[in-house]
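Give me C-alpha cells for this 674-residue protein.
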Amino acid sequence: MHKKAIASIFALLLLIAAAGYMIINNDGNDPNSPADAGEWDVYYVQSGSDLPNCNSDTKGRLYYVEDDAGFQTCTSTGWTFVDLTGSAGLVGADGVDGMNGTDGALGAPGVNGTDGQDGADGEKGNVGETGGQGYPGQDGTDGEKGNVGETGDQGDPGQNGTDGLDGHSVLAVTTPAPAGTTMYCSEDGIRIDVGVDVNDNGSLEVSEIHYTQYICNGEGGQDGVNGTNGSASPNTMLTSISAPTLQACSSGGRIMKQGLDNADGGGIAQNGILESGEIDYTTTYCSNFVVTRQADISGGIFNGYANDIVVMGTRLYFEAGDGISGYELWVHETTNGSTWQVTDIRSGISSGFANYIVVMGTRLYFEADDGSSGYELWAHETTNGSTWQVADINPSGNGYAYDLTVMGTRLYFEATNGISGEELWAHETANNSTWQVADIMSGSGNGYANDIVVMGTRLYFEAKGSTDDFELWAHESTNDSTWQVADISNSGFGGRAADITVMGTRLYFEAWTSSSGHELWAHETTNDSTWQVAEIWSGSGHGNANEITVMATRLYFEAQDGSSGEELWVHETVNGSTWQVADINSGGSGMANDITVMGTRLYFEAYDGSSGYELWVHDTTTDSTWQVADIISGSGSGMANDITVIGTRLYFEAQGNSGVELHMMEIEHSITYN
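Here you go.
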C-alpha cells in the first residue's frame, strides 16, 4: 500500500488513542496543557497555518497536520516535521487481481507499413461476360456514290401553312411641280410619290415615301391648224368641278355639277358651257376640321395644361396639374377618351413635374423632383404602373436631365453632378448605369449639350468649349470620343447650332456669324463640310430659322427677311432654293410655331393679327394656307402647343373656355347630293 495511506491510518490510530486518553484524563483544564506532563499528547490541525506559536508552552507537543498528512513538533528551532516512517516491512502477498477496466479510446492509426512483395499470379479465371458496347469509332471515309435509286411514290400533301399577315397598300400620289420649284423640271410638271401605307390610314405620309419621280412637260410646240367644229348636240353631258368655300368646308372638298348643254334656265344651247340653269345634279364632297377639348383636368376655368406630349401606342403621356396634386405625369387613352393621373411623384399640392418625356419600349423616362432629391432622372413602366428615380446624379442638389434623347438602349442628356458643371451624360438601361460622357468645359464650368440629335452611332449637339463659345459638337458612341465639329463664327464668339435637324447624312440648323447674323446652315457628315444654306435677311440682319421640320426633300421653318416679319418659309434641298411660303400677318409677324407634318399638310400655331394665336394649316399640294379653327373667338388666343399626331388626328394643348387643357383635331367627311 502507499506510504501516505499507511501514515494516514497510523495517524488516525494515534488520534483515536489520544482522544481516548484525553477523554479519560480530561480534568477540565486547557486541552493544550495535559494534566500529566509525562504523557505524550497528539493534537490535530487542518493545515500548517493552523499551528500555534512554537514557544515554551507548545514545546514538545506533537501535531498532526491534515493537509500535509504528517506530524510536526515544536523544537528549539521551531516547528519540525516528524518522520514516523519505519523501516520497510516484508513484501506482502499479491492481492487478488482487480476487474479489468473499460477499454480506452482507439488511438490514431499508425503509419502504413511498406508494401510486401507481390504474390504469385493466380490461375487464369474463366472468361467473363461480354461488356457493354463501346463508343462509336470515327466515321470511315465515304464509299463511292451509288447509283440513283428509283423515284419513290409522291408523298401526301403537307398541311396548309398559317395565313401570312395582311399586306399594306401601295399608294401613289401626284402633285403639281411648277417650273423652278425642282431641279428636274425646267417647265411645269408632275411629281409622283410612291410608297407603302404602313399605318393603313389611306394617306401617303412623308415617312412612307419610297421613291419620287418627276414627269416634266416639254417645251411648248407650235399650235396646230384648228380643226373644223363638230356638230353640237343638246344631249351633251357637261361636268363642272370647283372647290367649296372654307367657311362651308374648312378642310377642303369638291363640288361636282352635272347637266345637259340644252339651254335650260335661259342658257345657251350647245355652247360647251354648263350654265347655272342647265345644272341637273350637284354632289358636294366636304371635309371639316373639328376641334374638341379632350379633358378638363383642372376643372372650371383653371389651367390643367398638357406639356411635353408623347405617344405610346394609343395613349398620350404628358405633364398636367389638377389643382390638387400639383403638376405630375398624366395619361390620355385615345380609344375611349379617358384621362387620369399616372403617379404622384411629389406627394401633396407640390409639383413633381415630368419634363423632357421620351419613350423607350414600354417605358417612359423624364426629369422630375420628389421634393428631397431635387430634379433627377426618373422612369415609369407602363406594364405594371411602377415609377421610380433612376439615378441621383447630384446628391447635394439638382442633377437635372435636359434634352433626353434615345439611342438604342441608352439615354443621352445634359446633367450636372455638382462638380463638373452641366455636361453630356448617359444612362444605360440594360444595366442601370449612369455616367458623365464628356467634360467639354473642363472644371466646374458648364459645357452644356443642347438640341441633341442622333445620326447612326453618333450624337450631334450644341456645346460650349474651353476656347470657343457655343458651336456644333459631336460624340461617337462606339469609341467614346467627343469633339467640336466646326468653328462657324471663327471669332471666339459662339456660332451656335440651334434647332438641329437630321435629313439623310446632313444636319440643318440655325447658326450665327458676325457678317450674316442668324441664318440657316448645314453640315454634311460624309465629308465634314459646313456652310450657310441661305441668306434670308441680307446683311447682318437675323433671318433666323426656327422650328425646322423635314417633309420629303424640303425643310419648313419660321424665318424673317426684314420686311414680312416672322413667317412660314421653305428650303428645297434638291436645288437649293429658299422662299417664303405665306405672309399670314401682312406687315407683322405671323409666326409658325410647333410645325408638325401630317400627310401632305403642315400644322402649326400662327397669328394673323386679328384672331390671336390659333391653329393653322398649309397644304403642300395646293400651296394654300389657312386657319384651322378659332378656338378662342375674336382676338383672344387659343394657342396650339405641343402638337402631336396619332393617325389622322392632332392632339395639342390649347386655351379654351375651361382654361388651358388637352384638345384634339380631326377631319370629318360628308357627301351631299342635290
